[in-house]
Each structure stands twice: as structure tokens, then as C-alpha cells.
């Protein structure tokens, strides 16, 4: 038997599914999932964005009132990604969320790009949340009778939420639960109060001119508010800390998305019916309001109209609290990306360390907190955060594509067994990809450039650090691609998986196969051959007579199409074997 193997055999490294196991403690239930998701969505989406969206839908010059439609369409656009993440999370309930799903599907190169980009985009969004409360801070200054340094206040809050994150996710839940509950009650009281005390103009949200000049304005506004829902999938980033993930993650994300959509639509309709859109601009109350800027404290404007200065001041206190809560949840999710990448040798190993007492990745949290602090101090966070939105849309498109790839490759890669599967597959994933592409087109070159910038950072990390440490893997994407481009190689790769599926059952020598294991493997690959011929074939392959063969000997020795005149479906056999064993 020749010692060398053809260059197009297999040079991958086998990585069993056990590599997905976590060291973090599972403490979060369904209620926690919904609360954390809502707290990650209902911050800037309600307290900052509405007035900006009014002006955007009006073409940038005249505010319009039909923004509820943009919030509704944005929820529909992100629904496929939420559903896809729900399926992926039940197959890979591991901290790291989107990074883990993309890395396991497409390999370490694409995974590094996704992980680094997600970390950067989420970190900047978190930093933006800490700066976002500045529009409401003036009301607190008047209440307290002091002058507040916005930057110092943001850094102090950052230090506090970093410490809370290190103390553990249960403490985050204890803080966010009352914050989200009281905030929703306050907004509900404001809305009901306005309907009983003000002359509501319901036609403003639905009448002529409410949606700008056409579908282009509505589409652009939809892309603008897309970020308001991005937090719905952040809970998947802490999937390793959620109890019963096969139920709590998918249903928790979908439930929180529905709740957020209903709240966004109802509250924005009431806001524009109670206060004319011009009232949310820094210009006179009369329409048209041309040349004015959108106010970044719309809830204050609404609350003051309903209940006077006292209600406005209370809304400012809630805004600061809720935006801080948003940063708290965002830091928790953002820190899990470097944690998961370190686990895969794509970042330094120290970032994988878990605190012995609090069971949290404290170094990843501290590193993310320091990066947020530097961003707040040195960078134009608001502008960069907008650029990062384009990358988030690209990630959601990739998540939808991951489900399609994994479903097609799941027969061969039998580890992919989601306990909850996406309904309407693959149509809902295709819709998510197309709607994401449309949003990128509507957003223009700014979104594309932001996405490319995030990709460039990921490429640099991979080629300067990760490539030399990451091992080439036989990914589902490679399997699907090879089935179309090189059928012979695809069959070899499936046989490679058979070798490792059988060999790993003997942990002491997982890289070698005995005669009995060889017979077992060949019963999957070529069930037409009897045991006598298989024993002779094994001894022929075992040229040095040591009683075992490695993967190269196995592949080279059975690379004979005459053996497989009546070959079985290898992929199906792998899956059946794995289940039966």
C-alpha cells in the first residue's frame, strides 16, 4: 500500500459536538429571556428614535405621523432571523449566539468575521445607549439643581454595569425585571391618560400624507427603525446560561418580539395622535415644520403634554434608567462573543476564563467594558453605531442562510438536531434574506461600508492570530458546496465522517480504527460486502500489520468505486448510526 495519499483526500480535523459544551451555569428561565430581550429593545427604540423616524419618513424635511407602519414592517423583517435563531439555539445552546451558529456552519474564517463584527457592532450600540440618555439629562439637572458632566456620568454608569455583569446574570435579571415592569406601567398610564384628557387626532397616523411621499420613504424608515428590534436576538448570545434552552430561547425571543412590536405600534400611534409631529421637532408647533431638527427626547415631549412638567421629569428619570438597563443587557450579550471566540482558539485563551465564584466570563466582560469606555471618550459613537447597523443586517441574512445550509447538510452532519424547528422552512428564511438585502439597498452605501469595515477587522484578526491556531474543519457549508462541485470528493468526506463517528466511540484511540471498528464502519458504507471480504480488505490496508489503521489509510484503502456498486446512502447511514448508538 502506498504511504502517501492523494492531495485531494482530507486534511480536516475532526471536532465532536462536545466542543460546544459550556462552563457557565444555567440560571435564566422563560421570564428572564423575555425581560432581557425587551430591555434590549425598548430603550432607544421608544425613548430616542420616534421623532427621528418621523423626520426620516418625511424625507428629512417635514415630519410625518405614520411611523407605526415602519415599526410593524421592521418587526416582520426581523421575524425570520428570530425564528432561525430559535432553531439554531436548540441545536447549539451555547454562549456566543450568532457567532457560534455561523462558525459551526461556515468555519473559522467566516466565524471570526462574524464574531469580531458582532462584538464591535454590539459594543458600539451599548456605548451609544449610555450616551443616548443625554437628551433627558437636562431635566434631571433642573430637578437636582446641579450641572452633570455627561461623559463622566456615562463612564460611571459603565463601571457600575460592568461590575453588575461580573456579579452574574441573576443579578441582572433582578435589576431589569422591575425596571422593565415599571417602565411599561408608566407608559401605559401615559397612553390611557392621554386618551381621556386630550383631544386625540387619530387621523394623523392613518390619513393622507402620514407615510411620506411613497413606498421609498416607508422602506427607508423601516430600515431606520430596524435597529430597534436588534436586541430581540441578543438573548441567544447567553444561550449557555438559559435553563431548558430548547423551549425558553425560541419561544422567549418570539414572544418578546411580538410584545415589542405591539408596544411600538400602539405607543407611536398614541404619541402622534396626542401631539402633532411638529411638536417633536425643534421648531414651531405649526405644520409644516421645515428646517428643524428632530428632538431626541420624544417621550419627554409626550409626557409633558399629557401630565405637565412633573410627568415630563418622571419620564426623563425612566429614560435614563431604561437606557442604562439597555446598556446592561447589551454588555452581557456583547462580552459572550470574545468568550466564545477564545474557546475556539480565535482569540487569546484568557478571555475564556470564568470567575470561580460568580461563574461569569469576567475578563471578557472587563475587556468589553474598557472598549466601551474608550469608545465613549474617543470616538463619534453615534455615527459609527449607524455604520454598524449594516453589518447587523448582514449577520441576520447569514443566520437565515445558516439554517438552510444546516438543514441540507444535517443528514451527513448528524450532530445538527434542533429540538425546535422553524415553521415554513425554507420560505421564511428566503424571505429574511431578501428583505435584508432590500433593507441594505434602501440604506445605501453607508450600510455597505459599515458592513465591509466590520468584515475587514474580522479578516485581520483571523489572518494575524486565528488562522495559525484554528484547525480546518469539515463544515456543513463545505459539505453542501462540495456536493455540487465535486461529487467524488463529497463521498470521500462522508466516509471521513464515518471513520470518526465510529472511531470516537473508543476515546482512548480516537484517531485509529481496529478490525472490528473497520467492519462496523464498512457496514455503513458498503453493506453489500460480507465480513470475510472486509477482514481481508482491512489486512490489506493495514500494510504495517500493527492491527489498526488511521484515517488516511482508511480513505486511501477504500477509494475504489468497485466496492460501492450497491452502496447505501452514507449520509443517512451516519445519521442512523449516531442515533442508534
**Biggest sheet: strand arrangement:** 1-2
The rough form would be described as elongated
List low-pLDDT spans.
1-8, 17-21
- Total individual domains: 2
Percentage beta strand: under 5%
The CATH class of the largest domain, by name, is Mainly Alpha
Count the helices. How many?
22
Entry keywords:
Recoverin, domain 1, Amino acid/polyamine transporter I, 66% helix, two-stranded antiparallel sheet, 22 helices, mainly alpha, 581 residues
Describe the structure.
- With 581 residues, the chain is mainly alpha-helical.
- It folds into two domains: 17-460, Amino acid/polyamine transporter I, CATH 1.20.1740; 486-580, Recoverin, domain 1 (Orthogonal Bundle), CATH 1.10.238.
- Helices cover 66% and strands 1% of the residues.
- The protein has a two-stranded antiparallel sheet.
- Helix 17 runs antiparallel to helix 18 (487-503).
- The chain is elongated.
Summarize the structure.
The protein has 581 residues and is mostly helical. It is 66% helix and 1% strand.
SSE layout:
Elements: H1 30-41, H2 44-47, H3 49-57, H4 67-91, H5 98-106, H6 108-132, H7 134-144, H8 150-167, H9 169-197, H10 215-225, H11 245-274, H12 298-343, H13 362-378, H14 381-409, H15 427-443, H16 445-466, H17 476-485, H18 487-503, E1 512-513, H19 515-525, H20 531-541, E2 549-550, H21 551-557, H22 570-580
Antiparallel strand pairs: 1-2
